[in-house]
Specification:
The protein has four helices and seven strands; from the N terminus they run E-E-E-H-H-E-E-E-E-H-H. By secondary structure, the chain is an alpha+beta fold. Strand 2 and strand 3 form a beta hairpin. The longest helix has 11 residues.
Amino acid sequence: MKAFILGFPTFLGEGRGLVQIFTGSSLVRDVYVLTEIKSNPMETGLVTRVPELAEILQEDLALPGPEPLIAGEWYAHYGPFSYFDDIGPASFTTIPLGWEGGRFTDPISDRKVVPDAEADALRERLSLPPVEEVLEALGERA
């Protein structure tokens, strides 16, 4: 697993969020988990800018084209580490990253909330560590 804080420009200033990329022979395809964190201002939400973030990742990861990213599974990840308000336990939403007209797309209407049982299976399949532990290892806070 590769984890890092991704910064991105917004009209309100710098946004930031946790990106975790899971690869390996035990996975059918790469998995990208975009986690909203409290230290990112609400107005600059990470998962509202998925096409922009995919462009940044393509450049940062030195990928030759969009194919590796659009072939992956993408998830938005929310929980107590995301907002100061109590929104309940951690949850996931699918992100249908695509490519059309020479740019990344994210038809928000095609996103789906991952049911609890599937979310538990996803955590297990990825051996997803707690967000707080990942942030601490990166020297960050939620």
